[in-house]
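Anyone up for a design puzzle?
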């Protein structure tokens, strides 16, 4: 099938590359000329494991352009994957979605096209996009084609986006037009049936069979996305709230998380205590669902509480440092990890940036390191660039405390004795419960975590 992807961010580029690998003819459109030139030259502007390998495998089936006319020429499916960041009131900012819808209407071909919302959008946006595309389309003197609008929410984890696209838990499609549902069912048939030959670097899970297809109406598909992300955010905030109680009563939060997650009705994933969630999804989507409910005069007290609990986790990091150091002003504190999670360079709503700013406001001296995201920080937060260090060891030298913010594998196995000896005060705040406290204590560190010391050293799956 001929497919046009509008937007070449994390979702758009991953989706387009995967569909091309499956054999579809894909054109990716983006108004950012520099990004398109980079992609044409084979340079991927984001960090996502295996994406460059998959693009190399599918290079003859995908092309990149800034021209909507070229992208939509004879396209059977147009996938909108533009950003929908949060506005000041928590509602999604839909400027990029509006611009994409207008441009699609101006360039639709003469055949039947399914216009797909893959961007996370408020409930009802499918109808809004339909009206925008239709208004733009009908202003043309040569308007002869037909189209319908569908929703196809993504459930991709940054750092595992290729895996999640090719081997998903489910595929959700929503439309009020049965013809559109049929087109999308055919688009995803290789994934639904798992009939494609897997890439050599990312083999199919042995236990994976046919992938469930949820075929529903527009509004339901849109709400499925928000519901799923809100529930995952709830699990993370819930275990962090329990962690605060665990510290008060002298309990071990990691044992609690494991004992709770082994209940099959609950499951272990997303029950990882720590600094909490960041990134482009959970904060934005929980804010959006609260804002949408407000339009209908509904409160979302559970989701609102999860949002507030997550925000408070970042403050607890600073509170813990204040308790240990007594005085923050003039102290040197090194933050290990800037990206909001490992295996990505995404800094959107990254806890490290908020913690760094709070420490600066309190008069601390900060040092920052990340194995992947430092170039992105230089571009997006030049005010923090002077605090970057070329290695974790440099960041730790003569520091008063280390904070593990992002549990990159590189940080889990270090020469802790040498590191402790180089610090002014060998203090380690493990914000992700990823380190072995006994090993760090033996190396000379004063080890602590957000909800108390963990003598067992167990871990549970983070996976968000």
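Challenge accepted. My sequence:
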């Amino acid at each position: 099938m001929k497919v046009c992807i509008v937007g070449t961010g994390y979702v758009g580029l991953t989706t387009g590359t995967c569909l091309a690998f499956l054999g579809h003819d894909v054109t990716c459109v983006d108004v950012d000329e520099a990004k398109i030139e980079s992609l044409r030259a084979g340079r991927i502007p984001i960090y996502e494991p295996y994406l460059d390998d998959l693009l190399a495998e599918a290079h003859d089936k995908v092309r990149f352009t800034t021209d909507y006319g070229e992208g939509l020429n004879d396209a059977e499916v147009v996938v909108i994957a533009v950003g929908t960041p949060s506005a000041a009131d928590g509602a999604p900012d839909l400027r990029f979605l509006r611009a994409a819808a207008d441009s699609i209407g101006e360039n639709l071909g003469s055949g039947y096209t399914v216009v797909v919302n893959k961007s996370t959008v408020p409930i009802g946006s499918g109808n809004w996009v339909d009206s925008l595309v239709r208004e733009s389309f009908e202003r043309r003197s040569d308007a002869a084609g037909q189209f319908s609008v569908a929703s196809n929410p993504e459930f991709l984890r940054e750092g595992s986006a290729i895996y999640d696209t090719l081997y998903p838990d489910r595929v959700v499609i929503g439309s009020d037009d049965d013809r559109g549902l049929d087109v999308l069912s055919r688009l995803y048939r290789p994934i639904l049936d798992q009939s494609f030959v897997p890439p050599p670097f990312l083999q199919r899970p042995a236990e994976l069979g046919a992938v469930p297809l949820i075929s529903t109406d527009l509004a339901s598909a849109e709400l499925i996305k928000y519901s799923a992300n809100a529930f995952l955010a709830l699990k993370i905030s819930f275990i962090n709230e329990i962690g605060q109680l665990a510290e008060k009563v002298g309990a071990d939060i990691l044992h609690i998380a494991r004992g709770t997650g082994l209940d099959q009705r609950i499951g272990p994933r997303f029950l990882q205590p720590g600094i909490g969630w960041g990134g482009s999804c959970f904060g934005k989507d929980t804010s959006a669902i609260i804002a949408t409910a407000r339009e209908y005069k509904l409160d979302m007290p559970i989701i609102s509480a999860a949002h507030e609990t997550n925000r408070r986790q970042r403050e607890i990091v600073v509170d813990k440092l204040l308790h240990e150091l007594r005085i923050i002003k003039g102290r040197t504190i090194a933050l290990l990890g800037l990206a909001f999670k490992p295996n990505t360079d995404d800094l959107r709503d990254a806890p490290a940036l908020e913690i760094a700013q709070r420490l600066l406001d309190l008069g601390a001296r900060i040092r920052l390191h990340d194995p992947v995201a430092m170039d992105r920080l230089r571009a997006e937060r030049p005010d923090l660039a002077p605090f970057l260090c070329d290695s974790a060891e440099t960041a730790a030298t003569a520091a008063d405390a280390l904070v593990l913010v992002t549990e990159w594998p590189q940080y889990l196995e270090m020469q802790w004795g040498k590191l402790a000896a180089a610090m002014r005060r060998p203090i380690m705040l493990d914000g992700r419960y990823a380190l072995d406290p006994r090993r760090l204590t033996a190396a000379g560190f004063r080890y602590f975590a957000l909800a108390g010391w963990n003598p067992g050293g167990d871990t549970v799956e983070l996976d968000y």
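A detail worth pointing out: Confidence is low (pLDDT under 50) at residues 456-462.
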